[in-house]
Every structure is written in structure tokens, then in C-alpha cells.
User: Fold these one by one.
Assistant:
Number 1:
Amino acid sequence: MRIRGGKQLTAGGAVAMAAVALAACSSSPTSTPPASGSTTTPAAGSTATATAAAVSGTLNGAGSSFQNTFQESAIQAFKSVQSGMTVNYNSVGSGTGRTDLASNVVQFAGSDSPIPSTETASFKGKTVLYFPVVIGPITISYNLTGVSNLKLNASVLAQIFSGKITNWSNSAIKALNPGVNLPSEAITPAVRSDSSGTTQNFALFLQTAAPSDWSLGDQSTVKWPSNARAGAQNTGVAQIVKSTPGAIGYVDYADAKASGLTAASIENKSGAFIAPSTTAASVSAGGVTVAPDLTFHAVWGSGSNAYPITYQSWVLVYEKQPNANDAAMVKAYIGYLIGAGQALLPSLGYAPLPSNIDSMAKAQLSKITS
Amino acid sequence: MSVATRADSAIPAESAHPLRHRRPLGDRIFAILALAAGLLVLVILVLIAVSTSQQASSWFSAEGWSIFTNTWNPGANQFGVLAFIYGTAITALIAVIIAVPVSIGIALLLTEVVRRRWAVPIVYVVDLLAVVPSVVWGLWGILVFAPWVLHIYSSIASGVNGIWVLGFLFGGQNISGASFFTCGLILAFMITPIVTSLSREVIATTPSIDKQGAYALGATRWEMIRGVVWPHSQGGVVGAVLLGLGRAMGETIAAALVIGSSPTITSHLFAPGYNMPAGIANLFGESSGVFRASLMGMGVLLFVITILINVLARGVVERSARRARGA
């Protein structure tokens, strides 16, 4: 299958000339017919800026499941920008995505974390570029009848998720919620059974914001206390929270909304309690330091309106592409993701990149060469 | 005498050569194709074993023999998988303990009790269980069965807490719908068809003349089954049970959904646990480095264990088949 893909790419180079000619005819109808009318208009605009000519061929990517909803929508919408290109994204998890990129199974990988030091050797010294594509809030959803606006902070969350606070009537929770009638009910932490970037970034938040109360690390798999209940994917955790009275779990914003869960407000760096939202997540990401290679951690960002449990996901590509057509395809697609594609994000439950990071990512596009 | 010896040696020599030449081309191609197909399976097995062991080697070199301790904590780079091995053994054991009496009961019902007219639809229904995909078992288990059975678990646990052995197995405070026991039950449903159909075939080979003989001596149906059918089919049934055990140990997706995903070693069967296939399926996506190598290593362990059980099962079945032919 991979071999066939490779052949298509070389054939794509030959067809490219014809596609350029066709683009003139195809660009005029694209602005009118597709269903998602609002998104296609800026999309058509980006073709002029990001890539001049039409490219064709197949671009394969794999990785982060957090990005998957965005990738699926972006791939659909991208068809009206580059009708000659086929983009595939396989949501196999960040770790597998990075392995696939290292072994050249795919041309780009989606990853929720930078390449860990244990994996750098597998990339054989080749430069990998990080393109941040999405930001997203992780909600702390809970199931307590009669309590609609729970306030929590990192310290209490760390103690709940390491099994030190086991009852809702605990004095530390009461202190954060004066006047709220908290029942004397056992707390059931709901966690992920699969290894996940959501777990990793939630643990990273606890580690960053409450290092003295959190000792379980910041990996994609955490050794949870025995009172925790594990579910597969965000939907599995949401299902546990929904069906278990007294449960509290960390759930991706889109899935929490879809399941109709109640989310707690979390204390941020400046001491304000902020409810999860896409705009508050963007604020948090805008308030963190970004490294020159565009790696950063969006959790615990500064800003009075920042939602502190925010995480990010990147698209990883090699700086040096094997041929000119590959480089053009990668540039066209990533240019779309960080350009016009950002308009798709809020309706999918993600937050768009803050403008400072977005412009850094756009500037980095020119580094991709063949 | 010399003539005779020459003739003796000449006959096989002369007959072998013409035969070899006379074998048609199609026949030879067929022989090569069949041999290739047979070898292919072996080659694939060996390649799987070699490549997974190779990828798991960094696990062993990093952890040494502590891979067999109960220290699973990827966050702290500890990868002892004893809890997963324990979970695999416990869930498979629960599955076998529940599935085997039921399966043998159904097999005896079909062969000795009901008439053929009724046996056919029952066989059909039991075989339908085998057609249900494992992910459907898992989803039904976690969405329907686990919430429902949680209340039963809770009442059993509060009833037996403190009682010797019972409290040890079914008590405890950490009761969950997704647990060792739920996983064992789901696995029991899944292996019942295979154990039933294999046992039924073995039991059906009991010579009718032996059974008639037992009846002629005045045996009741139960005495006939105990005295004739059981000794005859014992070995085959044990083989069927071992094959079921192998399947229960390797079952992945259903287990991953209903086992509760908590790598703990506890005697309390209603507590959430973990087993090897579920661990691999759940944790592979976001793993890297030694973490990934440890998951590969669990795969190798599982591979070795299931192969051993299958070889053992095959041996037991063949030995009993030989004995049955001899009898």
C-alpha cells in the first residue's frame, strides 16, 4: 500500500502540470457549491498566500487522536482548496504516529507532545519541524446532584486524583466553595484506560501547578489510585462520570459538551476561577513561553482569563522532504491547517492558535525544502 | 542367492526411478505450492517471534528480572508486569471454571439426552454465540452488563465481608462493574461455543455398542454417562478445555473494555484489574522507548504462553484420539 502511494507521488509530479492548467477551471466553482459555505471563502483566500500553484498526490499522516476531529474536518474542507491532493490521517496515537514518521511510513505525524529524548535516535539526525495546529481545554467534569458551579484548584485536584481526598465533604473542597452544600459522598476519579495525550497534559498541569501534591509523573499512562475507574477514550471517561454519582473526571471539551456534563471552574495562575471555553484556552496558550522550535506547553499560562488546563497538538514533518512535490504538498496542507483551517476549530470544540504562535508557525513554513 | 539379492535390490531401484520421472508436472507444482503454504505459516510465526522479541529486548536489558515484579508505573520508568500476568491467569481461570461445566452439560444434552431433531437448533444457537464479534461483547459488557451487575456485586460483597475464603474472594471495598469477575464472565460466554462443540464431537464418538452394553447391564443414563461416555471422552474434553483456556487468555478487545484497567494484584475478584492483551491494546498508542518495549515483551510472553497451552491441548486431544481408536 505504501509502495503504491509512492508511485502515485512520482506520477503526481508528472500530472502536476496538467493540474495547474485544470486549477484555473476548478477554482471558480469551488467558491460556491460545498456545504460548509463559511469556511470555504477564507480557504480560497489562503491558496493565494500559502501556495501559488495546485499540487496533486497523496499525503499520509498518522498520530494523535486529539487532533483527529480537526484533521477529519480539515481534510474534507481542504478538498476544495487542492482538489488534486488526497490527505489521509490515521488516528493511532501520538507515539505510534511519531514511530511511523521515523520509519517513513507517513509524511507527517500528529503529536500531543514534543519528541521525547528516548525517541530522538530513531529520527537519525534528520530535522523535524513542529507546527502547532490546535489548542484545547480539558474539562474537569463531575457528577454531583445539586452542585452546578464547583470551584477547584490544582492542589485539590492533585489530591483527588492521587487518592488523598476521597470524599466530597473534605474541608479543602469546602474552603474553595463557600456556601455550597457539598454532600458527604465518596469521590470516584474517572480516568483513561488507554495511554493518552489528554492524561499526559492533565498530569503535566498537576505537576506544574501543584508539584508538592502531585507525585505520579507526567506520562501518557499514570499509576492511578485504586478508587479510580478507567474508561476507554474521552467518551469512556464521560460515560463513567455520567453514570456514577460522585464521579469526577478529565474529559476533552468537545466530548464533555456532547455528553452534557457539568464542568468545574479551575483556579488559574492569577487566582481567578475560570470555566472551560475555547477562548479561555487560547488565552492560556498565548501566555506561555514558546521555544524557537515552536514547542511549548499551554498549561498554566498567564492571563487573568486563562483556563489553566489547556493542551496543544502539533503536526510533525521533516524539514527536508524527499522531492519537490512532497514539499509542495506538505506546505499546502500545513499552510491550510494553520491558516484558513483555524476557522473550523471553535465549532469542533477546539481553540484556535493565539496570533503570536500562529504567525511563528506560518513563518516556519518556508523552512520546508526538498 | 546372489541372483536373489541382486533382484531384491534392483526392484526398488528400478521402480523408484520411473515413478519419479513419471510424476506429472501439475502434481509436482502442487507439491511445491502445498509445501510453500505450510512453510509460510512457520516462517511467519518465526518472524513474528523474532521481531517482537527484538523490539522487546530493551525492556529486558533495562529491567532485568524485575520484569516479573509488580512495579508497573510508566511515569517512574518501572515496568514490572506481574499484575498483568496475574490478571491474565485469574480471568482465564474464572472463564474456564464457569464455561466448562456449562459446555460439557450442553454437549451431554445434545448427544445423550435430546433427540437429533432438537439437537440441531440448539447447536445452531450455541454456535451463534461464537459469531458475535468480540468488540460487541465488550461494548455490551461495559455499557449494559457492568452497570447492572455492579449492584449484585455490591450486595454480595457486603454480605460476605469477613467470612473466610468468601470474603477473601468476593469481599473488599473497591467494588467495580468493570472487574476481574466481569471480564471472566464475558470470556466464559465467548469460549462456551468452542468448548461445547469440541466436547460434543468427542462425546459423540463413544461407541454405541458400549453404551448399549451399559444399558443392558441395568445402568441408568447417569451411570452409563459416568461409566462409559466419560472415561472414553475424558482426554478429548480436557483438550477442548485447554483450547478454550488459550482463547480466553488471548482475547483482547472485550477484555480491554470490561477489565477495569487497573494493574493491581488482589484476591478480590470484584475489583478492577488488568491482563496482558488488554494492556497491550490500551497502552500501545501513546507509548515510546522502554514503555513500548515492555508492551512488546508482554506480547512475547502471551505468545509463548498461548503456544504452550495450544501444544499441550493438541497433545492431549491426539493421545485420547489414539486411545479411542485402539479401544
Number 2:
Amino acid sequence: MAADWLRFCQSPDLSIDEPYVDVRFRDERHQRVQVEEHDDVYLLTAFVARQAVVSSLPNLPVQAWLRNRATQLVGFRIDQRRRLIGEAWVPKAGLTAEQFMLYLRTVAVECDRFEYAVSGRDVE
Amino acid sequence: MIDIRAAAELLDFGARIKNEQRAREQLEGAVAVHNLLLREGVAYLADEVGMGKTFVALGAMTLFRHFQPNFRALIIAPRENIQLKWMKELGNFVRHNVRFPDMRVKALDGRPVRPLVACNNLLDLVREVTLDRDRDFFLRLTSFSLPLKGRDEVDLGFASRLRDGLREHLPWLRNEVFDLRNKQAFKDNFARALCCALPVFDLVIVDEGHNLKHGFGENVSARNRVLGLAMGHPDSHADRKLFPGFGPRAKRVLFLSATPVEETYDHLWNQLDVVGRSSPYQELVATDLEEEEKKAVAGRFLIRRVTSIQIGGEEHTKNRYRREWRHGGVHVHDEPIHLADAKQRLVVGLVQKKVSELLGDARFNRSFQIGMLASFESFLETAKLKREDSDAGNFDDADQTDDLLQREGIDVASVNRLAADYRNKFGREMPHPKMDAVVDALTNSWKRGEKALVFVRRVASVKELKRKLDERYDDWLMERLRRDLPEAVQPRLEEVFERYRVEKKEALAKGRTGEKNGRTPDEADQGGKDTFFAWFFRGEGPQWVVSGANIQQRFKKGAAYAAFFEDNYVADLLGCRPGEVEAQLSEVLGVPTERLRSELRHRSRRFLSGAAKRHAAADRYEAVQAAAVEWLKDRPGPHQARAGIIWRERFQYSCPMPHASEAPEIGDWLELPTFFTELRQRPKLRDILWPAPSSDANQVEAFREQELRAQMLASAARLGHGLIDLYVMTIGRLNSMEPRAQEAEGDEPAGRVAGRIHEYLDLLERQKETPIGARDWGTFDELAEIARNFNLILDVNEPEARQQPIGEAAKAFGQLLGRQQPVGGMSGQVNRTLVRQFRMPGYPLVLITTDVLQEGEDLHTFCSSVHHYGISWTPSSMEQRIGRVDRVRSQTDRRLSDLAHGALKGEDKLQVYFPHLEDTVEVLQVQRVLERMNVFLRLMHEGLIMAGREKQTISTEEEFVRPRQDVPQIDECLRSAFPIREDQVKGDIEELAVGPEFARDLAERFARIKCSPLAGLNIRWEPSSPPGTLLGTACLGKRVQPFTLLLKSLGRDPLVRCISPVGRVSPHDDQESLVTRTAGTRAVKIGAIETDDECTYDLAVEGDVLLASTSETDAQRVAMLINRVVHQADSLEQECFQDQDAVLETFRDELLEEGNDGR
């Protein structure tokens, strides 16, 4: 039986490529979000900027932490491979497709926005 | 489209204006604007000045956001003061006019759900939208001017700062974007890059939209171009490689202005064009269309209503309740200024001859810019302009012309020569009959307490008029003191006057009389030498006599007379008189007197500072009062509930740290009479000055209102005009001005204190009984006016006072009313203190200003008189100026609405003066402007058709041969050409998205989290927190981790945010180690706080979780959130601070502020 999250992702702007979901936006930009299943939660992750970009912008970690104060559901950090990523925990308890997609789209939108700010491009 | 019935369930426009008709008009406006924006994507609200366009716009925005919680808004105000006003009004609007918290517009604590962000410049805007675009942004139009030094090329330093600032947030911008060789190209590309940084706004509000009337194009102001390009103008020619994502940034645009056009419909089209909204309305600029057809086109998106006041059942539109003094005089209506003597006539004749000769010069072609001849305002020396400064001018709104000579004033050189010659010959300044007449008329201000607003064009006129009025004020005040002070002090008084004259002369010679600009309200008042009041009654005052300043200081907190304006709370609580308190208290508490005294003494030490060697009398009084009230609130009985309220509202925060270990004897402090205990004994006077709160109010509200009123009365009485009465009374009692006479006063017996209070109250009674005319305006009048309009004053000046602790509100009142001056002057930038004081009774009674106050600033609350001393060249500017005092809830509005019936007398009306001299060239410009004002009025109200393009210059050749004729004031009732149509307030949305129960249920769900078992967590919750906030400490084995939970919303979904502080880490400095420490922790969300303030934490771990549609899973979801956040925060704390385990108390204040984030 398919995992719940696969059933949740039924929308024309979403295309699944397990364990990823591609989220397409109205302005033709798009963002790829990884879905990782745990016992009680899903962990959603999307890449914002690769190591080279992170290294070229020395103030980027602080920018990410300042942004974290404002963004909802999504948190940004530099991971062990020194990439800038956005993540969100999604509790499974009582989760509906509508809320799962809200989490998913929020991660995609916020990461896409941050990506545009740091690179002016739509790559990740 | 929304239906007005649904809107009325959400919006209550009558909550504060208490005027059903106006409230209805505003509601209709909000609905119509909302529906127009939905249909057209653009709307123009052109209601007359003062009808509350800001509130109507906020109403429309609220309706959008209620149905569309992610609705994003940008508000562009013309300048800083209006930008801040918008932010203040949004807070007020949400608190008072949105009926219930819906978690979309209004949060549980009554404030806006979305944080508000003031952007001081465009880089600020980029930074803020990059951090979080889902807030409400407030900008000012002047920011789009993007000042860059240099004439054509760009100043490198300026440009580099802008470029680097932009690249900080958009690091990918290429070098070729920033062309430093061409100013225009640099600005254009900066604006295109700005567009790339901006999100798409669902609504952009452009306040005072007429400022954009010259449109978007190559040869318009840079400001309009930068704004247009930043909004993604379709004609931007943006290179998509350089500017990826460039495009329209405003889904909808709302323009606000009472004066949307000056001369032609082109102006309307131009404004739409700046934001790329003009194409559907191309007919507005068609040359082959009749004006009526253009009117119909404008009617597709424009709304205008006219204001009126019903007097005796008859409707009076603004032209009918304003009295215009069109013949130039200022003393008798419809009479010109009379020249006093032959010398004045000769001087005027001479200057006219010079001006005529000058205008005859080929350079000027017998014409001049309206309002830009210096001689119309003053014969004193006007500064010569520096030729290299292309933006400078001697007149405000110098943008009227690009001609440097015109900006300077073409008659400046001639008049300066004449003035210097006159000064050399006669040893005094050349008389200026207009200036003298106006000064003479305004001298009545401090005799009658009537305020006047004076607009000038020539910047230097502000100082000159102020100086002359200050001199007149000094004459009046000195005469008053001579008359009222005892005979014994007269010689000393004359010495004081002489010393003042000497010091003032010295200061004038140095060009320094007033206080330095830019002082913050917290800084000590330095007084000044511009008036005797400033020198003697403010600041330090002269030290060698008992000065007014010295008396004022004695009423301050902790000083000798500080208890004078206090209340005896214990007496009031027990319902007894001073003198009976101890016995009554002893009985109520059931303790004998001796024990009562010793226990009170013991308790009072907590309210006395441990740092003080000797406690001032007023501090001891306060401590004993606090101790008694605290005792009563802890003792069950009939007084417990009210004592609890007084304790919480008045004394809870009075405990100094550290407190005294021992307190002095309580003495007779329980029995002290004060101004307010004795005022209660004079019911008629009390009703006027300190009315008891309405019986509808609950006990807390009632006590708070009573206290706030008392604090404001006390501040007004000791800091302004009323201080003169207090001084006269005090010196009368001392019969001396010698400092040693005052030093004899210390701990006074209650009888002597009571004597002083009663003498003061008797004075107020006498003033009450004596009509103005038979006496000068005095303390009673000022205090009575404050009392009568207390809520209005709070609304316009200190709305936060209603929520603040009483002590903070009292401090705010002190700052509001400090540094008063009888005559205020303003140019260049807005002086906030002066503006706020002008919105109150009392000083400043005259406010002289350039056009810096022409737009947006409310000055209507106590002023019914406008002087156009320097005339403006556009009717809309004239209308904007009058609009400062002609507004909803204005003094005129209140006065006329109270008139039951009968004909409206001239002196009852709002007075509008056009001071000018007959038989001078000036009369031509006044006549022209008055004609244009009439045309403007007719066109705005019967349609927006203009007869032809009006010139901003006067041709003396044409005007001299035109027959002179009066330009009468239009008297017929005005009728709008663009009323709201019925279909604009009807719609298919008849129900709100959520009702009041939504937030109520959510708040209950949120509160239940505290009582629910949270798996894996051991939490100590704080007993009380503000609405929408829960504070707690998670116990993690032997360690603890404090946190706060905030109830928020994400779009339509409720969301809980958890914030757990780590400590002061300085993330900028310690960035690398923090990155390393958190790289391996999955989904840790670190929040860094950038602040210049002292703070207990600048690093926190945060997280959020959505709540489900029902509450079953709340505890489980929130428990997982808290678990994750507090563990991550505690781990980081251990890594960053090895032995530290900070407790909630360390972070409490800032954690409580987390819910406020800029709202």
C-alpha cells in the first residue's frame, strides 16, 4: 500500500518522483522537495543553494537565521555538506491531504524565494 | 463583490467617531473601494479633505484580508510624518473598528495580525521584504526620489552605498546594472533591480496620489520614474537577463487624494500610468472627447463624497461653514488691511515701485510665480542662494519652478537693498504692514486661548513671524506678572526682566534663542531664550530668584510639591476625608492604631528606594499609600476588590529595586489632602475638570480613566500656560522671589497644604465664573477643554496610554506636554512634539509653518483658523492646507454640530484668512488664486472638467488692464459628481469568512494546551500570560529550558509557534562555530535577533506546527513541537555556555515581547 504522503499529493501543480515532489509555481519557477518518512512525522527538505554559492556569500548563515525568525513552518540551515537547505517537520497525527500540501508548498515557496534572492536563478 | 451587510458585521466605523452618518459613509466607502478594486484593479478615493480617507482605505484592506488572509499590502505615504501616522492609524483601526479578532486581521490581543514595518528608504524596503514579505510595509514617496549628489554624473560614494546595499540582498546583480556615468540610467536600473526584489503586492495604496499627477515618462521627476519602474511599469524596457523576474508588482492600486486633478483629466491618467494602470482609461487623455464623456470614464474607478454639517436642519457643505477673508484684512471681515500711517504707505509704495520695475525687466516678461515674491511676506533680509545647489530655494515647495532666480524670489535683491538702506537710515527694520497686521491679530491668541495655523511660503518668514509674536507674548506676560505679583517683589521682577532682555539680545546676536533641534523627549528641557516663558518657566530657569522653572520642578515626582497633584487613594477607597483615614483604616482592617502605624511603616519600606539616603516627602506619601492599598487588597472585605484594582493599576510596579531596609515613621501621610481629594468636594468644578467615569465602564476601566485624566490634568497644569497661575499663587504666598524664602518650606503640615490647594481651586472657580473677555484665558479654560475632549486627545496623541501601565502613561503625558512654547515655528521637517501639542488645548497657540505641514498631519482638534500668509499657487494646496483643521471631529465640527438651530453666524465658522495688501501687486495673485479656487470647487463638485490650463505665473501686463472685481465665495450647497452608486455596495458575498466564535474557540483550544498531558514533557507553566501567549519552563532532567508558545495563523490555518531562547551569542561574530554545531542536527531552526538594544538573548531555537481543524490532536502536535525545540535549544545552550542553565526569569520580558513583533 502506498505511503499516505503519496496519496496526499494529488494536485496538478505537484508531480511525484519518489521520494521527491516537484512543485510548480504560477510564474513557471519550480522547486523539488524531498519527503522522508519517520514514525510520527514526515521531514520535508528542499535545497536552496549549493556549497559554492554558500561559500561565496560569507554572511549567508546569519541571513538564514534572521529569515528563520519570520518564516513559518520552514527553517533554514547550513547542512554538513555546507549547502543551504530548508526543512519542515510535519506531524502525522490528524494530518490531512490539505495540510500536508500546505506544508509542502510552503517549503517549496520559501526555498524558491530564498534561492532567487541568493542566486537570481531557479536551479535547485 | 462584498455586500455592505457582510462588511458591517466586521467593521464598526462608529466605534470612535460616534456619528452615525459619518460611520455609514465610511462603511459605504470601504465597501465601494473594495468592490471597485476587485472589478477594476484600480480605485481612486477622492473624498473631501478630512472625511477619513485613511480609515476608509484601511476598511477596504481589512475586507480583503479577512477573506484572503495572505493579502499583501504596501502603503506609500507622501512623507515620514504621514507614514508614521498610517501605522498608528492601522493599529487604532484594528483595535477599535474591527469588531472581533478573526486571526486574519485582528489578533487575540486586539492588535493587527500582521506585523507593521516602517521603511526609511528603498534599501530598507529591500532588506525587509527579503526577510519576510508577509508583513505590512509602509514607505514614503520621498524615498523614491533616490537623491544622488551630482548634476548629471553620479556621486561615486552615494552610488556605491546604494549598489552595495542592494547587492547585500540581491548578490547576483551584475556590474553592468550600475552605470555610474549617468544619473538617470543609474536610478532607472536601481528601480528595475528593486522591482526584482519585491514580491507582488495584492494592494498598493498611494496616499496623496495627486503628487504623481505629472505621470511616468522621460521628462518627469525621478521619483515618479523610480516608483513606476519599481512597480514593474510596462514601458520599462527591462533586460530580462539583467533583471530576471521583472514585472508588475501591484495587483491592485488604490489612490487617495481630495484633490485628484488640478487642471485636466490628464492628471488622473498620469497617476494611473505611473503604476502601469492607465491603458483601460485611454479616453481620459483623448483630445476628441467631450468632458462629460471623460467624466464617465473617471467615474468607473473614482469616488468622491462631500462633507456637510447639519445646522438647524439645514445642510452646510464646507464652503458654507467656512468664512473666507478674501479682502485681505485680518481684523474685520471683508475689510482690507488698513495702512496705519503715511510712512507705511510710503514704504509699501516704494517697494511696489521697485517690484514693478523689476517685473518690467525683459528677464521676467512682466510675470512672476504665484507665492514666490519675497516682499509679499517680509521686508527683512532674505538669504541669497548658492548657485551650485540646484535643489535649494527660499520658498517651500520650490519644485514649483526650476528657475533658480524664481526659487530665490526675483525681488530678493531689491528688497534686501531697500531694507538695508532703511535700517541704516532709521536704525530699525522696515515696517511690513501685512506682517504687522497679522501679528497684531494673532496677539489675541493667548488672551482668548484660540489657536491659529499660519502657512507661509518664504522659509525665513517662519522665524520672523515667530520672533515678532514672541515679543508680543513677552509684553503680555511681563505685564501680567507686574499686575498679579505682590508689590514687594516688583523691584526684583524688573531685575529679572532686564536680565532676560540682556541674555536674549546676546542670544539673538549669536543667532541662538530657542532650544537646539533634534532633542529627544527624554532629554532635560533646556528652556531657551525665544520667550520669557521659555527662559523663566522652563529648563533650569535663573537660579538667583524663585523662577517659574523652579516652581515647576517642585511639582515633579519626588520633589516638594509632588503630592499636590496626587490622589489620596486610601481616603477615596474608604469613602472618607483626609483626617479620618487612619481611624477608618484601623476599623476596616481590625487592628489598633498603633499596630496599624507600625505595620504600615514596615510595609512601606518596600516602596522606598534602598539607594536613597533621605526619602522625599512625596515618596514617603506614595509608599504609605501603596502599603495601605496593598494591605486592603489582601484583606477580605468590602474594599478588597477595588483595592486590588488600584493596587494592580497604580502601585504594583512601584517597588524599587533594591528597596529600603527600613522606612521612616508614616507621619500624617494617610491624611494628606491633595488637589484631587479637594476637587471631589466641589462637585460642579469636578464635573467640568475631572468628570467621574461613565457608570457603563467596568471598575478597572473606570479607575484607569480617572487616573489617566488626573495625570493629564496635572501635566497640563504644571507644564504649560497654567504654570503662570501656579507661579503667581506661590509667589503671592511667599511674598518674595528670594530662593531662601522657599527653602523654608519642607514637610508642611496638612493644613498649610490644604490652604494652598484651596487657594488654587478658588482661582479655578473664579475663572469658571468669569467669562473670557472679562479676563484672559487661564488654567481653568485649558483644563476644562482637556477634560471635555479627553478621549479625542488620547485618540490623536496617545492612543497607547489606554493600555499602558499608569506610570508609563503619566511619563508619556509629561513628555507630550513638556517644552511648551506659546508660538511654534516649523520648516524643513516636522517637529512631532509641536504637532502633538498643537492638537491639544494650550501652547502652542500659534503654529507658523511652511508647506511641510500641508498634507496629512491632523491639526484640527482645537484649531478653527487658517492664515494663508504666503499663498500657494494651486487650489489643491490651498484646500490641503485648510483640510488640516477641517476634518471629522474638528473643533469646528464639534462646535457647529452642537448648534441646535438658528442662522450660522460668521464668527462661528471656520475662519480662512488670505492676508494681503490692497493696491499692491499681491492683490493680483490673491485674486487669481481665489478665482482658481472657485473654479476648482465647482469642477470638483459638478464634474472634474477644467476650462483650460491655468498658468502658475501672473502676467502683470495682462492683470493690470483686467478690470478688478471681487471674487466672491461660492455659497450654494456642493454636490459631488462621483457619489457611491448603490450597485457598488452590493455583492454576492453576504457572509463573513469567520465569525467571532472562531478566535474565541481557538483561544480556548490554545489555553487547554496548558491543562493537557503533553507526552514526554514535564512543564511548569506560568500562571498568566497575555492573550495568545503561553509561557513555560520544560524540565529536562536536571536542566531547565524556558520557552513561549504563540498562537498565530498561516493563511486560514491556525498555527502554534514555539520559541526557546539560547542566550547572548552574537551570531554575527560566532557564525562559523554555530554553523558547525548545528550542521548535524536535522531540521533545527535557529532564529537570530539583530538589535542594538540590550537584550538577554539574541539566539533562539524556534519551530511551528499547524493545528488541525479539530482539537483532538492539539496536545500531541504541540508536545512534539515543544519537545523538539526545547531539546535543541538546551543542547545549543550547553554547547555555547558550558555551565549555564538560564531560567525563565532571565528571559521573561523579552519572551513576552515575542508576540508583539512590530505590531
